[in-house]
Amino acid sequence: MGIHEIYIRIWTVAFVGCMVLADAASAEESARDGVIRKSGNLRVPDHDAGDVAFLMRQPWNQKNNHRKSYYPAIFIFGDSLSDVGNNNNLITTAKATRLPYGRDFPGAKPTGRFSNGLIGPDFLAEYVGLPTPPPYLSAGNNILQGVCFASASSGILNSSGNVFGEHLPLAKQVTYFANVRQALQAMLGEKGTKNLLGKSLFYFNVGSNDYVTNYFLTNGQVPSLLQTQYTPSQFEDLLLSNLVLRIEELYAMGARKMAVVGLSVLGCLPAQRLIRKGSPTTCVESINEIVRSYNIALLNRIHSLQAAHPDAVFTYLDTYRFIDSVIRQPSAYGFENVLAGCCGSGRFHGLPTCSIPGLYKVCEDASKYLFWDFVHPTSKIDKLVIAKFWTGSYPDAIPYNLRELALVP
C-alpha cells in the first residue's frame, strides 16, 4: 500500500469514526474554551482596517425584501463555504446538522451551514434583496429567485472530497443547473428564461477542497498522490481548465453575469497548521504561495473569458488579501483569535470534531474568532467578506463589485 493510500485511509477512518460517535451520543452537549492565541510575526497590512465598522453596519434580515432586488435570481456554485443544506440529503460525513453548528443562526438551530450562524449566501441575498437561495436537493419548484448548488467537501475536480462520501462536484452542480433551466422554461418559456438568466447573478466559490482534501491531503513531508502526478503549476492549470469549462457550459445555457471568488489563505487553516505542525503565530507559507499563484492565474482566466464573451460580464472577487489583513491586524477588525478554531479539538482546534459530544470544546463568543472550526470561517468574517464583495473596489473586486455588476447592462 502506498503512503498516499495510507493517509487517505486515515482520514476516512477518522471522519467515519466521528460520524458514528456523533450518532451514538447527544448533539446538544457543549463546552467552553477560553484559550486565546494572538498572531504575530506577520507582514504590514495591505488593507485599511478602519472600514470594519462600515462593513459590519448592514444587518441581516430576510424579511427586508420588499425593495426591488438588484438581481432577479442568484445561482450559487461551490463547497461548504456556500452550502445551505444540500449535504443534509447526502450520505456523507461532511454534514453540519448538529449543534453547536448553527447555535447563532436565527432560531439557534443547525441547518447544514458549516458555521456558528449565517454564511456568505445569506448575507449576499440580503444585499441583493432576495431570500437565501434554497438548496437544490430540497428546492422543489422554489427556483424562480435562484438555487444554491453548493455542496460541502466538493471541488472543481470530481475526486476532491471523495474521502467524506457523497457530494456534488462542480460538474454535477452544472448538470443540476441544466435541470433547473429546463424547469424554468416550463414556467416562463424560452424568452422568459433567457431574460431571467441573463440578468441573474452566477456566483462561484469553489476550489478550496481541490487543495485541502486532495492536493494537500498529506502532511507535507510525504507527497500526496496528486503531488506525485502534478507540479503545483500543472495542478493549477488542471483546476482552472476544468473551472473554465464549467463556466463555458453555464454561459451556453444563458449565464451572463458571473462572479468568481478566489481562494483564501489556505495555509492559515487550523487543520493545515495542525497537520503540518505549524508555529503558534504563523501560517504555512508554502501553501499560501501556491494559493496566491492560483489566484493570479484565475484572474487571467477571467480576463480571457471576458475577451471571448463580450456579451457577458465576468468579475473576480478577492478574499485572500482581506483575510490576510485580518490575520495580520486582528484587533482592528474586532478579533482576538485568528489562528485557531472556535470549535474543535487538538492543536489550534484543527481536528474535525466540532459537534461530536465529548470530543470538542467551543468558545463562548465566536465573533472574536476568525475560524469557526478546523477549516470554516465564523459568521462574522463571512459578513465582512460579503460586504467587501458588495461595496469594495480594486483589488477586492476586479473589475466590478457585486453591486456594480448588477447595474451593468
TrEMBL record:
**Which keywords belong to this entry?**
Hydrolase, Signal
Q: Which CDD domains match?
A: SGNH_plant_lipase_like
The keyword Nucleotide-binding belongs to this UniProt entry's keyword annotation: no
Coiled coil region boundaries = none
- What superkingdom heads the lineage? Eukaryota
Q: Does the keyword Signal apply?
A: yes
Signal peptide positions (record): 1-27
- Any one Gene Ontology molecular-function term assigned to this protein's record: hydrolase activity, acting on ester bonds
Spell out the family assignment given in the record's similarity comment. Answer: Belongs to the 'GDSL' lipolytic enzyme family.
Q: What is this protein called?
A: GDSL esterase/lipase
